[in-house]
Design brief:
The chain is of the alpha/beta class. It folds into 2 domains: 56 residues, Uridine Diphospho-n-acetylenolpyruvylglucosamine Reductase, domain 2 (2-Layer Sandwich); 77 residues, Orthogonal Bundle (Helicase, Ruva Protein, domain 3). Helix content is 37%, strand content 13%. The chain has a 3-stranded parallel beta sheet with strand order 1-3-2, with no helix packed on it. A two-stranded antiparallel sheet has the order 4-5. It is globular. It starts with a strand and ends with a helix.
Length: 133
């Protein structure tokens, strides 16, 4: 791996400031980034750990009633939301979304079994339709 600086901010403002460095990269779960570093596919000047930033964690509803999942929120059986989408894994992304909606991880996996869909959105719709039958 390459040499790089490492920073652990504790607030959103500190994280934003740290990421202003040229070629700085955020580090969440590391499931994608760490292997990329090991294979020398990524060479950031600085890694900024987001683990200590409480402001980006949590699940809530906005004023319109939509479910909002903070980027630092981890879900059982999954990494941070969006991680699966970045590595093009719609089944993992759909599973994480179903867990966020209150399904147990095993139940989400059962609902997604044998469901057709090419995107996390179509998979979630199909799984929820299967659940209400």
């Amino acid at each position: 791996m390459y040499a790089f600086d490492f920073e652990k901010p504790t607030s959103l403002n500190e994280a934003v400031t740290a990421l202003q460095t040229e070629e700085a990269m955020p580090l969440g779960g590391g499931q994608t980034l760490i292997p990329s570093l090991k294979q020398r596919l990524a060479a950031p000047s600085k890694l900024v750990s987001l683990r200590g930033v409480d402001e980006i964690r949590g699940i809530c509803r906005d004023d319109a009633g939509r479910i909002c999942i903070g980027g630092g929120t981890t879900l059982p059986g999954a990494g941070p939301p969006g991680t699966a989408a970045v590595v093009d894994d719609p089944v993992a992304e759909a599973s994480a979304a179903l867990v966020a909606l209150g399904y147990k991880s095993a139940e989400a996996q059962r609902l997604l079994k044998d469901v057709d869909g090419e995107s996390s959105e179509t998979l979630i719709r199909a799984a929820l339709q299967k659940a209400v039958r």
